[in-house]
Amino acid sequence: MTEFVPASFDPPIRLVHQAFRLRPLGPKHNASDYAAWSSSIDHIRSTPGFEGWSWPRPMTLDENRRDLIRHADDFATRAGFTYTVLAPDHDAATVIGCVYIYPSKRAGYDADVRSWVRAEDAHLDAVLYRAVSEWLVEAWPFERINYAIRPDATSPTLP
After folding, report:
1. Which of 44, 74, 127, 148 has the fewest CB atoms within 10 Å distance of its CB?
2. What DSSP string describes 101-120?
């Protein structure tokens, strides 16, 4: 198995935008993460990149915490990188979405990227897509990225 990112690459630990902040997802986000996705299941399932997926699915707060621990472990071992999308207030811990960066299972791609925002922040989906697309081009070492295009967003040409 080849490494997902080069050993010399330091994965970014943040992305700051006027509408949100990205930070590595972990168990400390459990309550707010759970509230965000569990209130938006139908919305997330209709988000480009999530059609036909088995997640989100109903689960308990404890099951969600275990999922967040798994994502944090993936980040620590560099197997994949999940970021929580937080409200822009630097004192806020309100989760409004997530970004997932994992090795691609599709031939010809280095990384699969998915993102969602909660239903009440649906207007930020295209904004998040554009910001993450630019970040992927500028800060990540991938040559070919699979990230479901948003019909209402323009982005830099992803490699």
Report:
1. 148
2. EEE--STT-SEEEEEEE-GG
